[in-house]
Write a structure and sequence with these properties.
Helices cover 35% and strands 19% of the residues. By secondary structure, the protein is of the alpha/beta class. The protein has a domain of 180 residues: Vaccinia Virus protein VP39 (Rossmann fold, 3-Layer(aba) Sandwich), CATH 3.40.50. It has a seven-stranded mixed beta sheet with strand order 3-2-1-4-5-7-6, sandwiched between helices. The termini are far apart. The structure holds S-adenosylmethionine. S-adenosylmethionine (SAM) binds next to helix 1. It comes from Streptomyces aureus.
Length: 275
Amino acid sequence: MSATPREGVPGGSRYGEAVFRPEQAGEGERIDFGALAYDDITMARLRALGVGPGWRCLDVGAGTGTVSRRLLDEAGVASVLAVDRDVRFLSARPVPGLDMLEADITAPDFAPGRFRLVHARFVLMHLPEHDRLITALAELVAPGGVLVLSDAVDLTSDRTPDTPYTTLMRAMWQGLRATIGTDISWVPSYPQLLRGAGFGSVAAEIHVPPLLPGSPISRFWADTWERSRAAMLGTGLVDDAAVDAAVRYLDSDQCAALSAGMLTAWGWKPEEGAR
Ligand SMILES: C[S@@+](CC[C@H](N)C(=O)[O-])C[C@H]1O[C@@H](n2cnc3c(N)ncnc32)[C@H](O)[C@@H]1O
């Protein structure tokens, strides 16, 4: 897939092109490490929101489809449409009730129907047109349905002591922003953005998995750094030795750092005729 120049993204590339290419060996496993770290939290929230039998669901940027499949297997929903710009991981693990659509959710004509649940996890943060996309996703929620958005939040600040981990994370966010447009700075605004898109009973929560050697989240970050190494080096903030040192640090008992977490925000679309 060739890189398409994009407004406001100096590198002019997009997710799955310069970094996180699905055809690169191990990319499915990287996504699965993230899923292992967060799926239980996501499923607990979706179940608490009442997602269950009878629900038609849309999972946007579904990746390897772990949430899509758990919605069917554990929550017993009626159907899930899993959408991704590359469905190779989804089609490798089909299950009854799981429909797949290979599509770019930023396309102006992306309109696969209306759903009681619309869910997007770790997708919008990579797409600079997030404002327009929240409005577009809002259109896909049926009256009385719920939009659930999860993305990364980094809770470190300029007072957080430097560690090999914090140094790498700073370079990673900066490098991804320059290369593909990833931007997590607006993620804490999700509740207001949902309210602005017409949703009611809006709320949000944050989960931060502990960085323990060998844990799914630690392996996820190590893999993510490996795949974004060129983007990080391009910032001039780190060199190869710093990347290698951070990977070793993450896998050691010396590690004492706060992972980036997952903010999940949700809002309900008013029933038709309701104010
Ligand atoms: C970090 S993965 C998250 C996967 C899954 N939602 C999860 O949380 O496990 C991001 C996914 O979004 C997909 N994606 C990125 N940009 C997209 C776009 N414009 N349209 C559709 N899917 C996109 C990628 O292909 C990838 O599978």
